[in-house]
Write a structure and sequence with these properties.
- There is one protein chain.
- The protein is α+β, with helices and mostly antiparallel strands.
- The longest helix is centred in the middle third of the chain and has 55 residues, at 179-233.
- The chain folds into 2 domains: 3-206, 2-Layer Sandwich (Beta-Lactamase); 235-461, no CATH class.
- It has 15 helices and 6 strands.
- The chain has a 6-stranded antiparallel β-sheet with strand order 3-2-1-6-5-4, sandwiched between helices.
- A hairpin with a 6-residue loop joins strand 2 (42-50) and strand 3 (57-60).
């Protein structure tokens, strides 16, 4: 039983206990819940029986009843032709009490009508609550229950029935409109107030749950949209990397101009390609080896086009190219006599990737000022991350050097400045987004909380395309 159900049962027990205490000739009390409209399901909440000769009350639902859970609907107990008349139907439809002061003449005794058995002495009192208090409207918009003729009941009254109290008495101790029935009627109003309070509390809890559900749903939608937005903003760091790669490529082109006879990766890769193509026809139809050769050629050509940092290119050689060569030499005798040359070429390829950082070559470039060469070489191979945005200021300074030989340096400066502004805004956007999402989830003030990465919005954690781009695949 939920919290509201427990409160309802305690309230009903308190009412029964009060009535039995006030009415010494009362023997048993039961409270039935009625509603909601238009079904008007009647369900017995609890019963209390006074133990004979004592003031102790036994609680529960010991007797079998049609009104035990799930109870009876309005269509089952309302008055209708060729059907037994129930006191419950009278109380609910007429909003009036029913007193069985003479069980032998009780025309609404179900047991007497069906089996001819006499029931006990009892009084049933409807618990009324104003429509305006319960529903907040005068009644025009409500869907009312219908009597057996199809006419709505309660339409012209101020009240609805929310419960029915039934009190049993000792024989010949109860009469219609006597003091006992008036006490029951008076206390029924108190119960009506209590039930209204429980109803309002239940509505409040339901509204709070719905508000929480909507808030969390809105939070998830917002988090999803912000996550997508931040993922899209991740292009900023990829664009910055691309511009730094252009700076690096430009520096290596200057070195190749200064040292045309120096062995660079392009020349070595061309030789490796030549070794593959010159002997592929000797494989004798092995499709697996042909596919391996084709994959190796693709990887070597992709490395040719890459402008990654030297360590990333060396990883590419170690992870993508060298294992394929080892597999090719081991599985085919075609390249056995070239094994030593191939291994030497691969080692020379790795070494060539680092030549741009060699201080000896930096100081030996004669067609550019030494200060420009030193700054250029340092920035070309600098490790960029979101924590090193100041590196972009240094790149801008490099592009402003009067001797920097790039016809598009003005456009590059403009692009990097714009990317720098965006890169500086993203951490603040991420923090504010996390604050807003956390405040929505917790129902707190966004400015009073410590920012947490609760939505998984950190760009650094968005998969392979991290904020600094360093976790991106080597092919990017």
């Amino acid at each position: 039983m939920d919290g509201i159900g427990e409160l309802l049962e305690r309230t009903c027990k308190s009412m029964i206990k009060t009535l039995l205490a006030c009415l010494s000739h009362a023997t048993k009390g039961t409270v039935y819940r009625v509603g909601p409209m238009p079904g008007l399901q009647v369900v017995r909440i609890t019963s209390g029986i006074r133990q004979e000769g004592t003031d102790e009350i036994l609680w529960g639902l010991p007797a079998v009843s049609d009104y035990n859970y799930p109870g009876k609907s309005w269509e089952e107990y309302r008055d209708r032709p060729d059907h037994v008349l129930e006191a419950m139907g009278w109380c609910v439809e007429k909003q009036e009490s029913w007193t069985a002061e003479d069980p032998f003449e009780d025309v609404r005794s179900v047991r007497k009508q069906l089996r001819g058995e006499v029931e006990d002495y009892y009084h049933m009192e409807p618990v009324l609550v104003r429509k305006a208090d319960l529903y907040g409207v005068s009644g025009e918009l409500l869907e009312y229950p219908l009597d057996w003729r199809g006419n709505p009941i309660w339409q012209n009254t101020e009240y609805v029935v929310v419960a029915v109290i039934k009190i049993h008495f000792l024989p010949n101790t109860i009469h219609r409109d006597d003091k006992s029935t008036k006490i029951i009627r008076e206390l029924s109003r108190t119960l009506g107030t209590e039930l209204l309070s429980l109803h309002l509390r239940q509505k409040l809890l339901a509204a709070q749950k719905e508000f929480t559900r909507q808030r969390l749903q809105s939070c998830e939608i917002l988090a999803h949209e912000l996550r997508n937005t931040l993922i899209k903003l991740g292009f900023v760091f990829s664009a910055i990397k691309a511009n730094l790669a252009i700076v690096r490529q430009g520096w290596e082109e200057q070195l190749q101009t200064a040292f045309p006879n120096l062995e660079w990766k392009g020349r070595i890769i061309e030789r490796l390609d030549e070794l593959i193509r010159s002997r592929m026809h000797q494989i004798n139809g092995s499709q697996e080896l042909v596919s391996l050769c084709e994959a190796l050629l693709r990887d070597q050509q992709e490395l040719m086009m890459l402008n990654l940092l030297p360590d990333r290119q060396e990883q590419w050689v170690s992870n993508r190219i060298q294992p394929k060569w080892e597999h090719l030499v081991a599985d085919s005798s075609v390249w056995h006599d070239l094994r030593d040359e191939i291994l030497l070429l691969l080692e020379r390829l790795k070494a060539s990737l680092w030549r741009g950082r060699d201080p000896q070559f930096v100081r030996s470039v004669k067609h550019l000022p030494l200060d420009l060469c030193e700054r250029w070489a340092g920035l070309a191979y600098a490790e960029f991350s979101s924590e090193r945005l100041e590196l972009l200021d240094e790149v801008l300074g490099l592009l402003e050097h009067p001797a920097f030989p790039n016809p598009y340096k003005r456009q590059m400066r403009k692009t990097i400045r714009s990317l720098k502004v965006l890169a500086e805004v993203i951490p603040e956007l991420e923090e504010r987004a996390n604050r807003i999402i956390y405040s929505l989830r917790q129902g707190t003030d966004a400015e009073s909380i410590v920012p947490l990465d609760i939505a998984g919005l950190s760009i650094a954690g968005l998969g392979s395309r991290g904020r600094d781009g360093l976790s991106a695949p080597l092919s990017e």
